[in-house]
Amino acid sequence: MTASSLYERLGGERGIALLVDDIVAAHMQNPSIQARFLPYAEDPDHLEEVKGHLRNFLSAGGGGPHEYHGRSMPETHRGMNISEAEYMAAIDDILGVLDKHEIDPRTRQEMLGIAYSLKDEIMHV
């Protein structure tokens, strides 16, 4: 028996797209970080570009068929001075969306591990 990839456990392309949509929506509603995300709502083309990068990032990192060609995490977040409280608010949103989609505990832990592995590349850069 072979273990399924993170990509497969997240529901493949369709599942990841739904997760990304819900994560971005949660960020836009979260008072702790919404100011960073609400401007995307005013530029639908840019919003779709950002979501596309997130989908490809999750696909590539999860063993899926897509490659990520976006900027590195430090480059993407440079100058944003993201605080630990903001970072944790984003993590809480992600975990809430994973719960909403009934993602299994193993996959939740793997996603959390990935998110924490990127913490130093995202915060205060």
Automatic annotation (TrEMBL):
Entry cofactors: heme
UniProt-listed GO biological process terms: oxygen transport
Keyword Metal-binding: yes
InterPro entries recorded: Globin-like_sf (IPR009050), Globin/Proto (IPR012292), Globin_bac-like_CS (IPR019795), Hemoglobin_trunc (IPR001486)
UniProt KW Heme keyword: yes
Transmembrane segment boundaries: none
Keywords: Heme, Iron, Metal-binding, Transport
Binding-site list for heme: 53, 77
Descriptive protein name: Group 1 truncated hemoglobin
Naturally occurring in which organism (per UniProt): Billgrantia montanilacus
